[in-house]
Amino acid sequence: MFTRHPRQAPRPDHRSLRAWAALLIAATLAGCSYIPWLGGEKDPTPPTKLATIAPEVTATTLWSARLTKGSEERRLDLVPAIGGGRVYVADARGKVVAANADTGHVLWEQTTKLPLSAGPELSGNHLILGTSNGLVIALSTADGKEQWRTLVNGEVLSVPRSTGDGKVVVHTLDDTVFGLDEAKGTELWRATYPAPILTLRGSSTPVIVPKGVIVGLAGGKLVKLDTADGAPLWEVIITPPSGRSELARITDIDADPVVIGRVVLVGTYNGDLAAVDLEGGTVLWRRSLSSHAGLAATDANLFITDSQDLVWGADPASGAGRWKQERLRYRQLTAPTLTGNLIALGDLEGWLHLIAQTDGRLVGRTRITKRAITTPPVVAGGRLYVYATDGTLAALATGTAPAGGARGGAQAAVAADLTNQPTQVTKSTPDMPATPRPVPGPTPQTATPARPR
After folding, report:
1. Domain for residue 105, yes or no?
2. Could you give the number of structural domains in the chain?
3. What DSSP string runs through 256-271?
C-alpha cells in the first residue's frame, strides 16, 4: 500500500524504517486491510458491523455477471468505461471485455497478457489502459485488437485521460505526467516531479479542464499543466509534509480532484480538504480532513469519504461540515458516487450503500458480491454500474430518497433503530475545523519534449 522511492542514498535507519512502516501501515491506512496482519495480530481498526436498517430506497439489480478475474483483491484503478450502449471492463491478468450495457451480454473479449492496472478510458474508437509494468496501450472498441503501445517507464495506477483534442494524459506512480498522441501513442511531452521517499501506493487520476489538466501529486502538491506542451500553469501545496517520521510526513493526493465551475476541490491523506481557484491556483479555503478514497460534489454540495471511512456532507463554498455518517467506519469505502439525490458507495464485503444527500442517513443497501468493491460505482443512462475485485459487474436501478427524512412507517422504523442515523455537525465542530496553513513557494518542475524512439 506504500511505495518507497530509492532515488536518494539509503540512510542508516533504512531497514528499521521499512520494518516499522510494514508494521504500522495497515493501522495508519484504515482503508487497506487487505494487507495481512503480521503474526496474527488483531486488527486495531476492525470494520463496523452493519446494523439492520429500514430501507427507504430500492436498489434493483438489472443484471449481474462475473466477466473477468477482476483486480485479484488489489486496489487497482480498473474502472468500467461506458458509452455507445456498451460497458468495458478489464482485469489484472490482461483480459478486456465489452458487454451490452442493457443486458450484460458479452460482445467481445480480448486477452492482452499484460498486467493491466488502470482504465479503460473510452475515447472515440479507442480504449486506453495502463499497466503495472509501465505500458500504456490502446485497443479498438470494435473488437479489442491492440492499436498501439507506449512505454512510460512508470507504474500506471490511475486512469489515463483523453483531452478531447487528440492527446492522452497519463500520471505514473513516480509522479511523472505524460502527454501522448492518441492516434499513435507517441510521447509528446512529459512533466517530472520528485516524489517523497515514502508514498501511498496509488496516484490520482488527471482531470481535464479547458486548456489544461489538473493532477494531484505525492507530497500534497496540486498542479495545473498545459495539455499542449506540459508546461506548468500553476502549482500549489495543499498540505506540506510535517512530522518526525517518513510515515507521518505522507500527505499524498490520491483522491481524484473534482472540478466544479471555477473551483478545484481536493483532499490529501494525513492533511487537508481544500478548494483551489481553477485559473490562478489560489487556495480559497482549507479544512483539516484526511482523505485518500475520494470526494464528489455539485454546485451546492460536497461529499467526502475520509480516511476512517466516515462519510461527510459539507458546503463546497466554505468546507463547513453539514453532517457526517459514522456507521460505516473502517469498512474501506469507495469514493462517493452521486445518483439522483443519493450517494452510492461500495465496501470491503461487496455491499453497495445508499445514503441520502440531504442529511446523510442510510436509506438502502444491497450486496453485489462477497468480495470487495474498491472502485467507485459509475453512473450512466440512469443506472449504477458496480465492478468488484472478483470481476463481478452489476447494473442497478435505484429509487429516490424521500426529501427531508423518512416518511410514514419508515420514519418509525428508523427512529426505533438509530444506528443508521448520521451525526449532525456545524461550522464550529472540532472534527472539521478551519485550519489555514502557509503555502510554500513552488517546487522546481520540468517539462521536456519527447525523446527520440
Report:
1. yes
2. 1
3. PPEEETTEEEEEBTTS
